[in-house]
Amino acid sequence: MAYINIRGAVVEREFSGGKGFAIAEKFEDREGNQRSKPFTVWFDEPRELPVGTVADFSGLYSDKIEKFKNDKGEDVHVIRRSINSVKVDNEVAPGGASAGGEAETPW
To answer: Tens of pLDDT along the chain (107 residues)?
Structure first.
């Protein structure tokens, strides 16, 4: 596995009793279009991380290619990106107030 650090990602939803969160890395591509790359982050222990929180996430990266059939019966492949044993830094709650991020360094 590789170690990854994503800066300024936005929390989009919570699941698995506070152990899993969908986050998105937002960026501008070469043509100036706004893009988003989704990740799932997994914590060892449940935690509160409100939707809309912006933070830096780091941990062990893995991806998985999944295949399914769409409504037209065509095969579709998607990449599911996950970050395990996550550390959070520079956490800012929705509305701009500091959410008391862990300020942990990797490892």
So the answer is: 799 999 999 999 999 999 999 999 999 999 999 999 999 999 999 999 999 999 999 999 999 999 999 999 999 999 999 999 999 999 888 877 655 544 444 44
Give the type of residue at 25.
Answer: E
Residue 35 CA to residue 48 CA, distance in Å, equals: 26
1-30 burial: b if 16+ Cβ within 10 Å, else e: eeebebeebbbeebeeeeebbebebeeeee
Q: Classify residue 48 as exposed, middle or buried by CB count within 10 Å of its CB (0-12, 13-18, 19+).
A: exposed
Q: Which fold has domain 2-92?
A: OB fold (Dihydrolipoamide Acetyltransferase, E2P) (2.40.50)
